[in-house]
Amino acid sequence: MTERTTTAEEDLDIIRRVGAGDHGAFRELVERYQRPLYTFVLRMVRRPPVAEELVQEAFVRAFRAAPRYKPTASVSTWLFHIAARLAMNEAALAHHRREVPGEIPDAPGAARGPLEELERKELSQTIEAALSQLPPQQRAAVVLARFEDMPYREIGKVLEVSEGAVDSLLQRARQTLARILRPLQ
Amino acid sequence: MKCKESRKVLSRYLDHELSSTETSSIEEHLAGCLECRTELETQQRLWALLGSVEPIRAPNLTAAVEARLSEPRGWLSFLAGLRLRSFAYATATVALVGLFVGTGVWAGTARHGSDAREHDRTFAELLSDVPPGMEVVAVLDQIGERP
Prior knowledge:
The complex is a heterodimer.
Chain A: H1 3-19, H2 23-45, H3 48-65, H4 75-96, H5 114-132, H6 136-147, H7 152-159, H8 163-180
Helix pairs in contact in A: 1-2, 2-3, 2-4, 3-4, 4-7, 6-8, 7-8
Chain B: H1 3-14, H2 20-32, H3 34-50, H4 62-69, H5 75-81, H6 84-128, H7 135-142
């Protein structure tokens, strides 16, 4: 049995208990998924307070929808789907308001020299800024494929598009990113 | 496989989304095509570059989520749950809808009133030419209902 299958089965058990109103199971679900959901949402909205609020809202919605959960998609995909809808709406609103994307604070890394630290930080911020230039749907597809290792089928379910559309989103995103990041390659 | 087909599936090849037959086919093509191999390497470098972003510091949201869950539901919690900005949008929308509806009702009433006054005037003019005692017959004539 693979690790992924075990996790999926555990998730299914957790979500059934959440659906029955088990708050302990809900806490387990939050502990399990808050980090991947937060990093995904933050890369979409680029504002930590907004990302925190959207992730909280996604979990509350998941709790209320849990009794109606149908295992047509994995629990992970289902949660990302709820979070993606909220994040995409917010990203689209921010785009409409022409907001300047904020900087993403990174976690303290391994001990490095100050110069190396600065270089890494700059590189990281350049890449994050390049990602923020992608339209929300392309950005979501890249983040899910590259940082969450999500297969196209699952990405399609999260974004409510076909696998072919995911392929097309990723191809266009790769072309744009290659153009923006050419000096770094 | 030709270069054009190879470029179409390159992205899926990199993401391990091709079947074993498709994988063999593109690998066979890549082995003999320098141009497509260069494109593949460029895309591989790009994907590797994306991986060099620093990890994100994620806050612990468990307590905040649980607190939010224990908030009362209904209109009050709905309003409380909305951010100020969303609330402002909602208020503006309600005000606009109210304005449109109000303007529509006022215009409709005004038009109805002026139509009624015009109708009364026409009716009075019609009856002014009718000899006294013949008003009912004249009205029945007008609406085509005279027996």
